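Quarterly update from the structural biology core.
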Amino acid sequence: MWARPGGKGANVAAVLGLAGVQVKMLGAVGSDATWPIDCLKERHVDTTDMYVSPDVPTGRAFIQISSEDGENSIVLLKGANFATNTPLDEPNAWFSRNEQQITHLVLQNEIPLACTIAFVEHAASLGNVCTVFNPSPMLTPDELRAFPWSGIRVLIVNQGEAADMHRALSGRDAGSEPAKALASLPAFASIQWIVVTRGSQGSCAGVLVGSERVWVDTQAAKTRTVVNTTGAGDTYTGYLVAGLMSLHERDSLSSERIKAIMHRASVASAMAVEVDGAMESIPSAKEVDARIALLG
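Predicted structure, tokenized:
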């Protein structure tokens, strides 16, 4: 058994750091294992707002990897990331300290849901923060129905999650195109980017351009050898967000521009599965650009 750095929030922060954008990680570890903070620093992540709990241990994930195809099975053990009465409970104070720096807020479901909702709602009240949500592990049907989706600008899920969300919110099967089925629901009408990853079948995105939702499909990037799929989705998310951060308000959002952002995320994700580990498998921007050039 090996101990390695990871966790969805930490992985995405590491991706953004390696992609060359400014990123600050807000999270919590226990005093029993603070070395993941050092791993984030090595990947150019600002960790000044990380909280070290004196009495709740660092959260852990027990991951089994198939030697045949690199697929994983994960059991999560909550720790300091689910502790209460920490800076994670105070979005107002955190945003007031960082408001001038924050353009994008990236959230997942490995912290208390009440905390996630508080950050979503506060970011929405500011009006100038793009909130990205990857609801994994998946919320319960009741949580999905109660979630403030109007505060989300970018939603990233895999195909199975999209189908589960549609079923929970509509009571119907999503059919052969869960991404479009999900986008058709009133709760998601205002979400600008709805991105659905489909493994070896690539990914698709429905992006609001003006009043019209434009659909873009991209093929999966070729992988040389699948070693470990852990962290591949986080790598895709991070590079997609890095691409969004490169956009400016005046940029025209064409299908070609959307596809280029998705393709870069796909290539990075394909590279991640070629290396063992989660955070250790994330490629740098230079490595991703070299692979894209090689692919032509």
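The chain has ten helices and ten strands.
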